Amino acid sequence: MLPHYRFDRAKVIVGFDADFLGTWISPVEFTKDYMKTRNLSEKPPRMSYHVQIEGRLSVTGSNADNRITATTAEFGVLLNYIAAKLEEKAGTANLPVKADLTQTRVSKQTLDKIISKLWSAKGNSLVVCGANDVRLQILVNYINHLLGSYGATIDLARPSYQKLGDENSVNELIDKMNGGEVSALFIAGVNPVYSLPNGAEFKEALQKVPFSVAFTEYSDETAEHASIVCPQSHFLESWNDSEPVEGYLSITQPLISRLGLSRTLNECLSAWTGKSATDYALLQDYWKRHVFPLQKEHADFQNLWDRALIDGYVEIKRPAKKASSFNMNAVKNLRLDSAKPSGDYELVLYQKVGILDGRHAQNPWLQELPDPITKAVWDNYVSMAPQTAKRLNLRQGDVVRVSDGNSEIELPVLPQPGQHEKVIAVALGYGRNTTKRFKDIGPDWISKRPTVKEGETVGENAYRFLKWQNGFLHFSGRVNIHPTEKTRIIAQTQTYNSITVPEKLGGERRPLIRETTLKEYSKDPASGNKYKHQILQLWTEDHVYTGHHWAMVIDLSKCTGCSACVISCQAENNVPVVGKDEVYRRRELHWIRIDRYYSGPESDVEVVHQPVMCHHCDHAPCEGVCPVLATLHSDEGINQQIYNRCVGTRYCANNCPYKVRRFNWFSYRKKDEKENLVLNPDVTVRSRGIMEKCSWCVQRIQEAKAEAKRKGVKLADGDIKLACEQSCPADAIVFGDMNDPQSRISKLIHHPRHYNMLEEMNFKPTVGYLSLVRNKE
Amino acid sequence: MDLFSAVFKDEDDLLKVTRQVRDSGYSIYDIYTPYAVHGLDDAMGLKPSKLSYLCFGFAFLGLIVAILSQYWIGSIDWPINVGGKPFNSLPAYLPVTFELTVLFGGVGIFFAFLFKAKLRPGKTAKLVNPHSTDYYFILTLEIKDSSFDSETVLSLCRQNNAVETKIILGNAL
Amino acid sequence: MNTNSNSLAIPKAVQKFLLLLIVAGSLTFIAGLFLSPRRIWGNFLITDFYILSLSLGAAFFVAVNYASNSGWVVAIRRIPEAISSTIWLSGIGALILIFGIHSLYEWSHSAAIHEEVSGYFKAWFNESFFIIRLVVYFVVWIVLNRAILANSNRQDKHPDIAYTRKNVRNSALFIIFGGIAFCLASIDLMMSLQARWYSTVFPVLMISGMFLSGLAIIIVFVVILRHIGYSHIFTTEHLHTLGNYLLSFSVFWVYLWVSQHLLIWYSNIPEETSYYIFRHFGGWGSLSFLNVVLNWLIPFAVLLPVAARKSDKIMLQMAIVVLIGHWLDLFILVMPAFLGPEPSVSVWEILPFIGFISLFVLVVFRRLRKSSLLPVNDPYLVESLPDSERIVKSRNF
Amino acid sequence: MSIYYSILRKPIIAGDKKLKDITDDVIRPLEQKPTLLWWVAFLVSLTVLLIGVVAVTYQIKVGIGTWGLNKTIGWAFDITNFVFWIGIGHAGTLISAILFLFRQRWRTSINRSAEAMTIIAVMCAGIFPLIHMGRPWLFFWVIPYPNLRGPLWVNFRSPLLWDFFAISTYFTISLIFWYLGLIPDMATLRDRAKSKIKKFVYGLMSFGWNGSARIWHHYETTYLLLAALATPLVLSVHSIVSMDFATAVIPGWHSTIFPPYFVAGAIFSGFSMVLTLMIIARKVLHYEEYITIDHIEKMCKIVLVTGGIVALSYGIEIFMAIFFGNQYERFMFLNRALGPYAWAFWIMISCNVLFPQFLWIKKIRRNVALVFILSIVVNIGMWFERFVIIVTSLHRDFLPSSWAMYKPTIIEIATLAGSFGLFFTFFLLFARFVPFIAIGEVKGVLKYGKLKKNLTSEGSVKANADVTV
């Protein structure tokens, strides 16, 4: 059973490689909950204390107040120590092993401090661990038990159903398939040939099954070997429902009519059982029979159904699950192996926020989504600590061979600050056969480098490094690294990573990110934001904003860097995908980007994520320089780009201090009716040779204004939700009318944390930031 | 009208004889030289060219046109917010104003000159001597009436090393 | 051949009047030190820089003409030479100015400024280094200028073109090192009045103002000398050429003025607009407009016809307009820091300035008397006079 | 004033030339069949030009993406080449207008070819703003004309629009000025021509010129007025070009000294190009007596002076950035000198500041081979100056997240080469069909410096024929 973690109730959070703000179980939900514990507008300001212990630098780690690097192999010792210390405090003693801190570099003091924090927040603390290792999970559970987290920050009464499965039974299945015991196999929602370390075994076994059916949206590695493939409708074409957390039933509705001849799994099954029905009918029928009786609120089924469609979910109350008591025997029998592992480095396999386990690999938007940490696109690679790379004399892009004795993989190196010296990290989800189709993505011209070469895939499949251990798949293991002569480019959207300029060029820190600590902030909300500038200007003020004056504020303390805004903006505004080579040439077209800066020593960096889009400056430097007036200011303060007037001199982009303007270097649109169906009809598709940039989803603003006018009401604060704002799980982005004194934006603009980047230059940007507050000493 | 013409090989001779014939009261029809001889206008008694006033006029017109049209476009016909700059961005209008001033002045004076000098593409040149555009200097005097004393003129020319003299009957120029 | 002096003299009455003005000016200055020290120091800076502009303008005029082997200038060269010989006057002024550093420059005392500026700024702008630099500038100018004047005068006695050659070399050195020194001096003395403001064209703008006012004072003296009987050596042609120079440098000055103003206006960046914010609006704004009118519009419009550049009267008027304009230029540059948002002119502005100018005029005339008004043995003299032989033989100069 | 010259003056035209000799000498290349050397040079230039044409055609067909630009660096080779060529052009106008106003009579030997160089260079320059546009076929949108789109006007506040006005005015006035100077020479050619075709063509082009003193009188006034207009024009053109950068807010671009500094730089590079061309031309066309070693020396001095102004401007910029500038400004200059493009910066400094100092030495100024090398060095240096200003300012501006690098593509290199091909193709055609030296003007200075006089006693002055200062 997977418990439902309640981050919103936690005051102290200790994460062991659990990327809960990135990819772990339910990141969107966790991000929302997590941000509830970090409320700076309350008095006194409230902020949870978050410790992240991990080998690589994850999205979650980049947001932690205290980040400690440790290999997965050290986790046992660390957890053991924490558990033992907590036992001391709780006055019990069940642990059979004593922690040997010599096996870890993490100091006793550090751990003791964490332990005392955990203990003092007893009942409001939460320890989570992402490692797929029963022994570690037992320790974690025991710690949570000692801390009284069960029933508080860990909800067992309403467990999560999001990541359920039994890994071990796959091996049983393979054995049975090999043994000829399986005569028919239906495969849906999984791709074992690709994603099992012994995928090859599965493939061979599959050949022995006389009748196999693969249900799939795309041709995948497993379906290729099935006897029958049933094309599945896309989830946006079909009806479906789900129950992510006990008691919350939600409905998926189709957005478009089906493009091809496909059926959903349910439809297939119903057709085969002879009672052919549409997925809609099937779903409604199921709800009528199974969901309707579970609730009392709606007397009429149609009522319930309508409510569910409007809200997207219904809450039902099943009889509470009896929380099983903690099994102390597991703790008492715990054994941690202390065998010296072979191999020089610990390989950590992880998922990226865009591609996840590989299920999104065929989606070019997500392939081109910059990884929140490395800012790399269209590839996986070997992340290693910069010191390690230096020691091995490896530079970014040098291809290395990673081997664990059985499997090998060749990938380019990417030095990653903040990574443990002994850890190398490789993302899963790459090397999918479906990505071969990207060889033609991006513009075609003489010096192009194809995103993937003929017959190759995007990245390499790292699943083969997963290890079966005690019936579970381990996401880490020991490997060796061998340099090769080869190099391969890694395309990144950001290549200089510090807010401080290089030492030999002055070494000054730029005041673009303003930050403070919780302690300072509690004393003075304006701490870290004390830059006084006199704004003197020579222009006569001819432009007064009498109606709306739009503005945006982004809370740096909330932004986790998850990049949902980037994708939602891309989808909303028809931003083309340009391919790996173009990104490498620094020509991606994303209208919003998240600048990620490191500070501090390379081995122990602090990270900040700063979303940047067009700042819609009232004194926009881009506007004055356009010879043909293709970029202008609206009377509501929007910096408008008039695509069909633009001749493409690019001066506006040069003169943009925030470098947010994007140029159509080529014609990216291809004549592909299917692909072009993803286009938002409210937004112009841009042609070659013109400039584009964030328009503040002006189509949404206009729509909301028209809607308000149609209804004859005043446009209310919050009626307009920009795509980025809407998709931000942390609610870090707020948009509104600063001419309305009651709006959220007006209040935020006068918040002591509010600042504008480069405000001393008098560009008068209307996008502002709230300074970053870190809960550290 | 008949003309007297004399050919010289040196500009100093020409300058001298020009001054002398003018002092003697003869009216100079024209002088043809292969290059602009410094001081010849003075010797001939030509008044300063009025073209400079015309040039000033053209340039001033350019100035006015530029300033007014930019002001009209920016402030009256199409007042829009360009980067927060004032509608009447006078400092930013200066470069174009200057360029138009020069353009009007320059193009204007060129065509005014062609008009004044009656030059145009393809016009047939009227030459007294085929070498007057190469190495000969030719003085032509008007023979208005009998008061024209060809003897004196001839002797003046000879003193100043005239290469050749002749009378051109009927104005062939 | 006695060409060492001439009979040039200013009437006794005028001399007495000038002396009176000098005394009045000095007394006002001393009184001002007690009554309105900041204002008087501001004005003293203007005055001293003004005199420096005149003498350096003339010095550069001499040097540029030497370095470019120009022939036309030789006949009038003794006038700029005499004017340039007064650099020491502003040098003494600069020494007095040292006592006013605290009243003048914010960077010398304001802690607030020190918090805002970079370490580099502090390294450059500290009192002792500032004083050392001032001394170095004047040494460079005076030494090189003296060398040129000495060779020029020696040639009167010893007709040897070697002097001309030496002076070409000295002039090149003067232009390079004197030019760099003036750039730095204008940054030190003028730009640092507003410690956080800077404009890269500023030194060049100051050079153009300096040269323009130098030309104007040369023209004033040429016209005066023509008036008192030297029109046979200082001819209309010289006046015409000087007029051309005045016209073009007036345009050059406004070109730089517009460059600075346009670019700062266009970008509207506060660290730059801080300079114009006072000078763009209100009373100072009107004065800035007047500044352009005096230094460019009037001389340009009036001198456009050739005839104007050959007329003593018009040329004298325009030179005086430019000289007033240059004072105004410096006034607008310096005084907003001391007078606040609205300009005003009082006795503190006028009397010490006039006193110093009178002293300057007296010194120039004394110098003019010391040597021949015509560099008789200059090999280029022949190109500078219409009937050179006759004039040289007449010894009437 | 005086008809006599100082003993220190030397005649402009060497040798004892008669008026007719000048015509013969200057026109000789036009009346002969082209030499093998000419053909080789022409075909090579034409080939390079065609390579450029192919590159530009490809770029217009496929997109600006075929250049190495990116979201951070929106201009690089294109505008570098543009400013470079415009700068080259400036020397021609300077020689024909400013030196004319300063009565530098030696200009007559080189003004015709220098003006031709100006016109061709402006054409080379004009191509770049055109092709650097994302949609060059809509180029005419920068022209303010009444239209049916609103009417939709252009932005008179944009420096790019100023550029359009400046470049087109400059081209027009240069062409007029050049042609005005050409009219008397065309008449000379017409009156010498033997063939009917030549007579007709030259007759058409000489506008019926007959050398009348009355017309010469107006002609000289017009010439003077055009010179007086062209002088501030040439200053304004490069000032406006500099404002393409100086009006921006980007550190390293926004600098008030840019207008005069760019003008000085333009003259500096332009004169170097004139030197390069003249040194070749005088040798190949046998014009050594017209373009003498003294001419070369004088041009070297101008290169030295303008180079000095350029160096001073570098100095002022760096000085102010370090002592007064904000951190972005200071960083920009440190980054230029020590950052990833330091190599370009130091090429610029050595070519523009260090090497020209050799010209202080008279022997080097009069050594044609060395001057030739130095002139090319300065040209390289000035190209790099623009590259440094444009690329190093853009590649690392305010937000470190956007810092990027630039590398030209083969298309850009071919386009740059093509512009040189265009330049030399046209210049070779010019040298073939138009008198390379202004015949009429050179005749006017034939007597310059020949009648010398010294006012002092002969004995005391060491005067000899080759005295130069």
Tell me the layout of helices and strands.
The complex is a heterotetramer of chains A (777), B (173), C (397) and D (469).
Chain B: E1 2-8, H1 11-23, E2 28-32, H2 40-44, H3 51-77, H4 90-116, E3 137-143, H5 150-159, E4 164-168
Antiparallel strand pairs in B: 1-3, 1-4, 2-3
Chain C: H1 12-35, H2 37-67, H3 78-84, H4 87-97, H5 101-104, H6 111-116, H7 119-124, H8 127-157, H9 161-189, H10 202-230, H11 236-267, H12 270-280, H13 282-303, H14 306-309, H15 312-334, H16 336-339, H17 347-370, H18 388-394
Helix pairs in contact in C: 1-2, 1-17, 2-3, 2-4, 2-9, 2-10, 2-15, 2-17, 3-17, 4-8, 8-9, 9-10, 10-11, 10-15, 11-13, 11-15, 13-15
Chain D: E1 5-6, H1 19-31, H2 36-62, H3 77-101, H4 111-131, H5 159-192, H6 196-205, H7 213-246, H8 258-284, H9 293-323, H10 327-338, H11 342-354, H12 362-365, H13 368-395, H14 410-433, H15 439-444, E2 452-453
Parallel strand pairs in D: 1-2
Note the main sheet of chain B. 4 strands, antiparallel
Strand content of chain D: under 5%
Order of helices and strands of chain D: EHHHHHHHHHHHHHHHE
Strand order of the largest sheet of chain B: 2-3-1-4
Low-confidence blocks of residues of chain D: 457-469
How far the N terminus sits from the C terminus of chain D, by CA atoms, comes to 22 Å
Task: Please list the strands of the largest sheet of chain D in the order they lie side by side.
Answer: 1-2
Q: Ends of chain B: how far apart?
A: 10 Å
Number of distinct helices of chain D: 15
Classified by CATH, the class of the largest domain in chain B is Alpha Beta
* Silhouette of chain B: rod-shaped
* CATH topology term of the largest domain in chain B: Alpha-Beta Plaits
Give the chain pair forming the largest contact, with residue counts: B-D, 66 and 66 residues
Number of strands of chain D: 2
Inertia-based shape of chain D: globular
What is the averaged pLDDT score of chain B? 87
**Rounded Rg of chain B:** 25 Å
* Tally of distinct domains of chain B: 2
Structural class of chain B: alpha+beta
CATH architectural label of the largest domain in chain B: 2-Layer Sandwich
The proportion of residues forming helix of chain D, as a percent range, comes to 55-70%
